[in-house]
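Incident log, support desk, overnight shift.

02:14 A customer reports that sequence design results differ from what the structure should imply. Their input is reproduced verbatim below. On-call engineer (initials T.W.) acknowledged and began investigating.
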């Protein structure tokens, strides 16, 4: 089940008694893009794993960075991923653009309920190159945003949010995960902010 907010304009012509009125309606597209002060700021997050179920010593660390946090449909999200593999097995990073829909409802006693539905955009899943045991690698991914995708929404009844769900596949162990939240808005909103220029450097 997926939700949406739709608008339309309806016109009605009243006719004499015992005659059905004429009605006509047309769809109205309304974009209310989210705007915040840090749209063009870079974001860097890290995750590490050192506990393994089987005979696999060492640790695995993943650093990920995007140059800004806001994008529009049809654009590419360019992000950099650094994997430091100090374990005894080969690992493979991958990324999925994920949409999360949250429905907000109220009971009769006005108690708010949050019902989450997660939807992964399977066609946007990308897999990187393997990182061998005892080595490190830095890879750049370009994840396309579908043109017809819904923009981020934060309303009293429906929230739509996005993140880049990063995974390091670890054989015979629980994978390492990291989420980079992003905002999908309109092209006009992105273009009205001057891009934040930062030199990318993973340490």
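02:41 Re-run completed on a clean worker. Output:
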């Amino acid at each position: 089940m997926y939700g949406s907010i739709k608008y339309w304009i309806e016109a009605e012509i009243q006719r004499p008694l015992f005659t059905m009125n004429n009605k006509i309606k047309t769809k109205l597209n309304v974009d209310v893009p989210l705007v915040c002060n840090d749209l063009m700021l870079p974001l860097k997050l890290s995750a590490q794993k050192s506990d393994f179920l089987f005979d696999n010593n060492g640790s695995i660390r993943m650093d990920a960075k995007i140059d800004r946090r806001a994008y529009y449909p049809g654009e590419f999200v360019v992000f950099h991923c650094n994997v430091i593999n100090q374990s005894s097995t080969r690992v493979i990073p991958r990324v999925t653009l994920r949409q999360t829909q949250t429905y907000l409802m109220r009971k009769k006693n006005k108690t708010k309920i949050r019902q989450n539905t997660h939807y992964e955009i399977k066609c946007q899943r990308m897999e990187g190159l393997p990182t061998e045991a005892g080595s490190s690698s830095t890879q750049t991914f370009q994840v396309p945003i579908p043109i017809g995708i819904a923009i981020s929404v934060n309303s009293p009844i429906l929230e739509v949010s996005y993140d880049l769900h990063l995974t390091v596949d670890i054989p015979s162990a629980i994978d390492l995960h990291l989420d980079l939240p992003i905002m999908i808005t309109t092209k006009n909103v992105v273009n009205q902010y001057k891009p934040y220029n930062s030199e990318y450097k993973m340490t």
